[in-house]
Amino acid sequence: MADKKERNGEFWELALDRAHLGVWDWDLRSGDCFYSAMWSQMLGYGEGELAKTSDLWLQLTHPDDRERAVASGERHIAGLTDSIETELRLKHKSGHWVWVLDRGGVVERDADGRPVRLMGVQTDITKQKQAEATLEQVNVRFGLALAASGTGIWHHDLAARKSYWDKRTREIFGLVADTDEVSQELWHSYLHPDDRADAERAHLAPLQTQKVVAVQYRIIKRDGEIRHVESLIRFIADAQSSGQILGTVRDVTKAKQREQELAHAARHDALTGLLNRAAFDRLLAEHIATARRLAVFYVDLDYFKALNDFAGHAAGDLALKRVAERILGCLPPSVHAARLGGDEFALLVPDCDAAQAERLAGAVLAAVRDADLGSTAASRKLAASIGIAFVADANTAVADALACADDACYAAKAAGRNRFAVFSPEATSGSSGLNAARLAADTVDAMADGRLKLFGQEIHQLGKPWQESRHVEVLARLAGRNGRLIPPGEFIPAAERFGVASRLDRWIIRTALSLHGPALKSGALTLGFNLSAQTLSDPQLWDFVDAVIAETGAPHSGIGFEITETAAVTNFTAAEQFVRKARERRCRVSLDDFGAGMSSFEYLRRFPVDAIKIDGSFIEHIAESRFDREIVSAISGIARSLGCSVVAEKIEAQDALDILADMGIAFGQGFLLHRPEPLQAIVTRAIAIRASATQVSATRASKTRASAPAAAGRRA
């Protein structure tokens, strides 16, 4: 009997303690309520610290949970429920709240059946509630992610042969239904006939693997609309059934359309819709390889710059579009047209003889003359000079074919413009387009064989030594195969004319940052790079620059870019986007050759640049030209009001420097201040200056620290 009592008493008390269950025992007749030691421990109290009153638990219950907890007990006492079961929070001795699961019920009744005693246990479920809260957060985030991505969820029960689509999946397919369950055959009925086999095969693939399978296909909605969708599919095994196929679905129609647009943009000029230079070169190479006679037309608009200066870049863009439309309108279907850049166009005419070329050239000239240029440029007219070159040799290089046509175009211009000329090898001169093409090709070779050299010219803060600013404009010098230095005025225009300017710019940027990235990172100096119109129009430019910066460690803040008005005119939108992206990365941007064109102030208004460089034509005669002084003063005043720094170019005389300093021009560049020299020499000098300044600062700091104790002693 003693063993049985021990099992009924101490044994069960020990079991409850081991299970961390807090026991309560409420006598309804006396109002007394017993709480076990484990119940007190669960709330951080020792034995005897809590007065065991009937409402103790209610005093410790969170205000938001009291009503629900009391109601649970009252319903049970009233016989409405079989037991008490509720979740509530109790206040811990340290002040935080403990979640408990309260379970219990009537254990004794009087002779009339009325409850007189209740008992129960409370279990600490704080960790469970925290896990539930964490899971709820995950579910909310998952739901938000799905909603943000527009992704639908579906699954197919293989054993039941039933499919279930969530609301978003039904919306993507255009299905109007109130339930998730759909027929197994429904999905198949939406598939585009050309994609059906591949899509069905992809959805069966997960049965063979645990991997996620991705597939894209088209669906035809009930209204006939075709949409592109993407699904991720995975098989989920289940020991109790055949398993399920779980998948997502997302409408990727816009992304597909964007891909098609990008593919089109990669081959076409954004402004006119004609083929771009790269696409035209590839097409020309393909046609030349067939060894069939073809004609290449080089079309250069006459008087376009005057129109652009007179009416502005918007009118210039409209004129280019209208001219392109007119040219396309007069071409046979077999002819391919391209915009090479700026106001230059090219035509590829297969199976063309001299008579056909003459008729087509006449039609193009008329199309340009008669083009409606818009109301802004109504008083202006354009014309064209056309060069024609015939190609019948499959070994002819694309650059040579275009160079011949370009050479003939120069002949047409020299003869008075608004006409065409046919290339004649006998008529070429030493400065012909053909030689320019070879020079462009030699520039490309020089990048690989070490004949292209990096030079630099210092930009000075007027009135102060260069050591205080240490900014350098990066230049390039080309050594010919005979060792003679070829002036930039020769090889850079040739590179621009024959489509290698962007490659040249990239080589300069990559080489300079690869060699001198650590110097830029240390703050020894900053470098500025000139960009051609072709580079500005390159949609991959910033991907390239960011990649080179990541490779070399050069900081964005140590790099500046200079764009000219000529480059901006060629593609205003691209220039605007370039400036915006540069400023996002904290690269400096300068507007070069400022004032040389009629639209300069408009560009200054539209482009939030860091600095402008006043064209050297206003600086070289500033001492004797009042007009030039007024122009420079006006530009400087406007720039300062916009928060732009001002750099005066081509400072070659002391009197010019003095005048500019008196005007408050902050920066200058020119032979008087510094003649271009190899960039490596400048960087080496800048590093030495930086190291010397650092050493001086360190010495001063050391002396200051060394003198501090003595000074303190004197004060004491």
Question: Any idea what the CATH superfamily of the largest domain is called?
Answer: EAL domain
Strand content: 15-25%
Which range best describes the helical content: under 10%, 10-25%, 25-40%, 40-55%, 55-70% or over 70%?
Answer: 40-55%
CATH architecture of the largest domain: Alpha-Beta Barrel
C-alpha geometry: elongated
- The number of helical segments is 25
Overall mean pLDDT stands at 85
Give the CATH topology of the largest domain. Answer: TIM Barrel
Structural class: alpha+beta
* Model regions low in confidence, pLDDT < 50 over at least 5 residues: 1-5, 428-432, 708-716
Give the CATH level 1 class of the largest domain: Alpha Beta
> What is the number of beta strands?
26
The largest sheet is: 8 strands, mixed, barrel
Q: Biggest sheet, strands in spatial order?
A: 17-18-20-21-22-23-24-25
Write down the Rg. 41 Å
Counting structural domains, the number is 4
N/C terminus separation: 88 Å
Domain PAC: 84-137, 213-264
Domain GGDEF: 292-425
Pfam family, one: PAS_3
Organism: Mesorhizobium escarrei
